[in-house]
């Protein structure tokens, strides 16, 4: 099949999922066209089956807001015609599903029908999409898509609760390529990061308020009072300064490393002992799944789709949002006993294998075929 993929080309989970999906589909013989405003961060290798088309938005001073949706719709129309793209798979409803619908309508004028598959990722529904300013357009574009998928059962339920949805929603979970985690790094350069007796705690996110960075720091503060440890914070975002100030206030600056954005997540996870994800809400928690794939247990909040990934008492622990004390207690419980820690690490890896890309991608292929039959 010739598949056009639209996504945010950034470090966010939705862009990562879209990119990994496209690359795997290309390995399975499909021709993939990424249509985005930048080359997706995890898209390194372009080849005969993987193409990237940049959406340019010319700046014009009259516009307070540059019309990205118009540029995207026009680019989609051109690319569908030029490359004979058969299906458009848009990741993140806003504004991608809306722009794709416009492209579909324009193409119809030329007797070309291209089905749209929309994948809902989370904040497009729970945080941004349900805002009254966007809701009518988001509802409309979900209902007009030829197929809609959500990355967890929880996100599907949220979507049905928050919007008036007439379409079916398939749950197709996020995934990891487990083979990429059998990297065989020997000591993972752990000694460069921490002393031998120190445990390494990791948090990876876009450091937005929804990630509750203060909780991350406070949980770590409690852990290091009882167990020698270092905290690795990977990613960048608006709450970084607040988190750094809190570390200074608590006197733990030397024990916390802020890496900023990184393409070496696998190396960092390789030397991690525990992953923290105390988010306010999380449709899935791809970062937690990536940690688990590296054999890292997870301390998380019990919210959104996280319980579909992190299993209570097996791969880690889940607490109510904001319950820093419980999360700290659970973290110390796992870290304070080597045998227990090993068991949790083993379980985390075993659970992650269930989300291997090879189990998930055929589900998307079946959906594409279904929409093609309809058209
Ligand atoms: O977490 C974010 O703020 C980024 C956001 C995104 O669009 O990339 O992540 C969402 O999509 C990911 C991939 O499907 C999910 O793993 C994240 O849980 C979800 N984030 C939220 O729901 C807050």
TrEMBL record:
The biological processes this protein is annotated with in GO are: bacillithiol biosynthetic process
Where the record annotates domain Glycosyl transferase family, the positions are 194-350
Gene Ontology molecular-function annotations: glycosyltransferase activity
Domain Glycosyltransferase subfamily 4-like N-terminal as annotated: residue spans: 11-179
Q: Spell out the Gene3D superfamilies in the cross-references.
A: Glycogen Phosphorylase B (3.40.50.2000)
Q: Which InterPro entries match?
A: Glyco_trans_1 (IPR001296), Glyco_trans_4-like_N (IPR028098), Glycosyltransferase_grp1 (IPR050194), Thiol_BshA (IPR023881)
UniProt-recorded name of the protein: N-acetyl-alpha-D-glucosaminyl L-malate synthase BshA
User: Which species is this record about?
Assistant: Oceanihabitans sediminis
């Amino acid at each position: 099949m010739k598949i056009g993929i639209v996504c945010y080309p950034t470090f966010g989970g939705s862009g990562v999922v879209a990119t990994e999906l496209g690359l795997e589909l290309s390995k399975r013989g499909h021709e993939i066209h990424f249509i985005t405003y930048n080359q997706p961060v995890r898209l390194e290798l372009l080849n005969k089956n993987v193409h990237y088309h940049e959406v340019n938005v010319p700046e014009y001073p009259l516009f307070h807001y540059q019309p990205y949706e118009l540029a995207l719709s026009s680019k989609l129309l051109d690319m569908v015609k030029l490359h004979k793209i058969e299906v458009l798979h848009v990741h993140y409803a806003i504004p991608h599903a809306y722009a794709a619908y416009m492209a579909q309508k324009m193409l119809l004028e030329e007797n070309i029908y291209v089905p749209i598959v929309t994948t809902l990722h989370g904040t497009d529904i729970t945080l941004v999409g349900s805002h009254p300013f966007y809701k009518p357009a988001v509802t409309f574009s979900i209902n007009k898509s030829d197929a809609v998928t959500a990355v967890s059962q929880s996100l599907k339920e949220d979507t049905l609760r928050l919007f008036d949805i007439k379409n079916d929603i398939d749950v197709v979970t996020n995934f990891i390529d487990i083979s990429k985690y059998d990297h065989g790094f020997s000591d993972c350069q752990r000694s460069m990061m921490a002393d031998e007796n120190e445990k390494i705690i990791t948090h990876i996110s876009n450091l937005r308020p929804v990630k509750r960075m203060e909780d991350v720091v406070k949980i770590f503060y409690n852990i290091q009072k009882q167990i020698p440890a270092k905290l690795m914070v990977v990613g960048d975002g608006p709450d970084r300064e607040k988190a750094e100030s809190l570390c200074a206030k608590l006197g733990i600056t030397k024990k916390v490393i802020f890496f900023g954005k990184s393409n070496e997540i696998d190396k960092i996870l390789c030397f991690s002992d525990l992953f923290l994800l105390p988010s306010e809400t999380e449709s899935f928690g791809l970062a937690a799944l990536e940690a688990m794939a590296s054999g890292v247990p997870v301390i998380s909040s019990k919210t959104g789709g996280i319980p579909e990934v992190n299993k209570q008492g097996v791969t880690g622990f889940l607490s109510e949002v904001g319950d820093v004390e419980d999360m700290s207690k659970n973290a110390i419980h796992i870290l304070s006993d080597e045998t227990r820690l090993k068991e949790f690490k083993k379980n985390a890896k075993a659970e992650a294998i269930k989300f291997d890309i090879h189990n998930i991608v055929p589900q998307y292929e079946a959906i594409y075929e279904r929409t093609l039959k309809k058209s």
